[in-house]
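new request in #modeling-help
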Amino acid sequence: MWAFALKRAGAMLVTLWAASVIIFAFIHLIPGDPIYVLLGDTATPDQADRLRREMGLDDPIVVQYFRWAGHALTGDLGQSIFFQAPVASVIADGAETSILLATLTMIWVVLIGVPIGVIAAVRQGTWLDQTLSGGAMLMASVPTFWVGLYLILIFAATLGWLPSSGYPSIFEGGLGNLRYLILPSLTLAAPNAALILRLTRASMLDVAREDYVRTARAKGIRPWQVVTRHILRNALLTVVSAFGFTFAALLSEAVVTETVFALPGIGRLVVQSILRRDYPVIQGIILVIVVIYLVINLIVDLTYRYLDPRVELQ
Amino acid sequence: MKSALKHLARGAAALTAALFLSAQAQVSAHAAGVLREATIGEPPPLDVMVTTADVATAIGRHMFETLYAWDSTYKSQPMLADSERVEDGGKTIVIKLREGVQFHNGKEMTAKDVVASMERWGKFGARGKLLMASATSVEATGKYEVTLKLSSPNGAWKNLVSDVNGGLAIYPEEIAAKATGQPIEQKDYIGTGPYKFKEWRPNRYVELEKFAGYKPRKEKGDGFAGARVANFDTIRFIPVPDVGTRVSGVQAGDYDYAEMISGDLYDQLSKDKSVQVQRTNAPIFGLFFMNSKEGILKDNYKLRRAIQTALDKSQALRVSFGSKDLWKAEGSIVPKDTPWYSTAGIDGYSPHDAKKAKELAKESGYTGQPIRLLVSTNYQAHYDQAAVFTRQLADAGINVQMNVVDWATLIKMRGQSEQWDIFVTHHSFFPDPILFTFLNASYPGWWDTAKIKALRAELVNSSDQAARKATWDKIQALIYEQVPVMKVGDAYTYDIASPKLKGLNPNGPAFWNVSTK
C-alpha cells in the first residue's frame, strides 16, 4: 500500500512537469496579450510595446517559462497582472468558494442520485422506473444557466427566501453564508445527480445478474438486504470513481453556474483570466487543478481497495 | 454503508433547514451605509492615468480627482483648480490650485504634486501625449500655482484635464515621481476624492470608504463638477458578469445599482416598480475602422464609399440595442445639442442604396474580392452590427468575410495591418473631437493622408472655438469622403438602481451626492 502510494507520487511529479510545459506553451500560443486589456481600447501600439517590455512579456517564451517554473518550484506562482496580488492568494480565495460549492453539490448528488437510482433499478421496467429515468434525462438536458436564472427569479427575486448571487466568505460572516450556495449547488446538482442516478441504476442492474446475487436470494436473505448488502455495495465501485471525477470537475468546471450566481470561484476566475490573458493566474490555476485531479485519482484508487478487498494495488 | 448514508442524509437535512431559517432572517438585512454596485466584471488595476477601461474609471473616479471636471452638459468646471490665466496667445497656462485639499494620506495637495502628476501623465498616461507632447515646461510657480508652457496653443487643454479616464488624475508627488508605465500598486492608490481605497478582494469586490478629510467645493454638484458629498460610508463594486443576475440582484435587493443592462430588457424594466432606470446622457457609438495602411481598402475611397452607401444603420442599431429610446441613427460624429454637432457630409451616413453601391464598387475596380472584417463576440453589439452589415453588403455584391475572435485577440490582431480590412469597436462620448482615436495616426486604421494631417494640426493648434468648429466641419466632411471609419450611430446605455436611491448622477455611475430616500 505505501509502496504503491510512493510510486504513484513519483509518477505524479513527472505528469506535473509535463503538464506545466503544456500549460505554458498553450497559453502563450493563444493570440493576444494582457497589455491592451490593461491599457484600454484607446492605447496606441507604442504605448503598448513599452509596457510589454517593462513587464518582460516580450522576452522569448523559453526565458519566460524558466522564470515562471523556477519560481513555481519554490512555491511562488507569481503575481496576477490584473489583481496586483499573489496568484496563490487569488487561487486560495477562489478555492474556498469552489470547494464548498462542490461539496454541497456532491451532498445533493449523493442524496438524490444514489437512492433514486437504487429505486429505479429495483423497480426496473415499471412506470416508476420510466418516470424516474425520464425525469433524470430531463434534468441532465436542461441547461444550467436556465435552471440557475429561474431559481434566482423564484427564490430570490420573487419569494426573497435566499440571496440572488455572490458569496461572502464563511470566515467573515459565519456558516450562515452557506445560504448563498444553496441555489447554485442545486443548479449544479441537477445534471450531475441525473448522471449518478443513471449510473447507479445501470450498475445495479449489471450486478443483479451476478451468480452470487442469485445465491444470496436462494439462501433466503431478505430482498432489501440483497439489494443493499450484495448489489449496492458492489455497484458502488463504478459510482465511486464517478464521484471522484464529478467532484474534480465541479471544482474547476462550474463556470456557467459561477457566472450566473456571480460566485468568486475557480471556474469563473480561470475563464476571466483567459479572456484577459492574465498568464500567471491561468498557469497557476491549471497547475493546481492538475494536482487536484492527480490526488483525487490516487484517492479513488485507494478507495477501491477499501470497497473491494480483492483489488490489488500494484 | 446504509447507516453512513442515513447520517449523511440527516446531517444534510439539518443543515438545509438551518440555512433556510438563517436566510429568512438575514437576506434583506445589509450593513447600513453600504452601497453595492454590480459591475460588468473585474476591473484592471485602478491606475486611471494609464488605463482607459471604463470599469476602472467608474471606480477610480471616486478616489482620484482632476484639475477640472465636466458638469452635466460636459462643460469643464474647476475641481482641484481654483482659476486659470491663459497668456502668450494660449501658449502659457497658469493654473491656481484650491488650497486646503487633502490627500488620503493626510498630506496637503500642492503645486509639486500636480507637476509630478503632469510629468508622469505626459510620459505614460493614456491620453497624456495629446497635451504634453507640445509642453516645453511645467513648473510649480508658487505653492498653489502651476505654469504649463506649450510650444503651440492647444484649444482642447481644459477638456484634456477634466476626466480621470486615461487622464490627469492628481497623485501625491512621491507616488507620481517614481511611477512608470506599469500600473501603480494598490498601496499607492492615494488621491483626493471623497472616497478612499480600502481593499480589493479578487473576484469578490473592490471596496472604497468615505474619506473623512474631504472638503467639498462650494458650488452645487452638477454632473461630475461641483460639490461631492459622500453619503455612504462604504461603496462596494461587485463583479457580476451575467446581466440577468445583475437585474434580479437589484430586484431582490442584493445590489443597489447595476450597470450596463441589455437593450431588450429596457421596456420591461421601465415599467418595473422594483427598479429605477437610469439612461446615460451621453451616447457611445460603434465604429467600423478601415485599414488605411494595407489591403484592398487602403486608399480606395470609392470602394469605401460604396460600402457605406449599401448600409442601413438603423437596422443594425435596432438589432443591437432594441428599444427606440436607446439609439439614434445620427450621422454627425458628435451628437446634437453639443457645440461640435455638424451636418457636413452626413448625406453619406446611411443611404441604404444597394444599386448605387454596386455602381460605385464597379467604378472602384472591385471584382468581388473578399473583404476581411475583424469583430469580437465579447461585445454583442459589435457582432450584431457586423452580421447585419455583412448581409446588407452581400445584397450590394460586396463580399465580406467575418473573422470572429475574442476581444484580447482582436486588439492584438488589429495592430497587424496585414490581418484585416475592417475592424469593429466603439467609443465613448468625448466633449472635444481631439480625443477621437481616428484622428490619431498611430491608432490601428492609421489614417494619415495629407488632407487630414493638415486639418488635424489646425484643430489642435488653435484655441479659438469658432475656428476649431469650422475645422471640425471640414474634418467630418473628409471622413465621409475618405471613410477612414464608419460611425454606426448613437447608443444610450442604461443602468438600473434600487428605487430607494436618489440623486443619481446623469453622467454615469458616480455615487457621491447619492443617498437613500
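bot summary: The mean pLDDT of chain A is 87.
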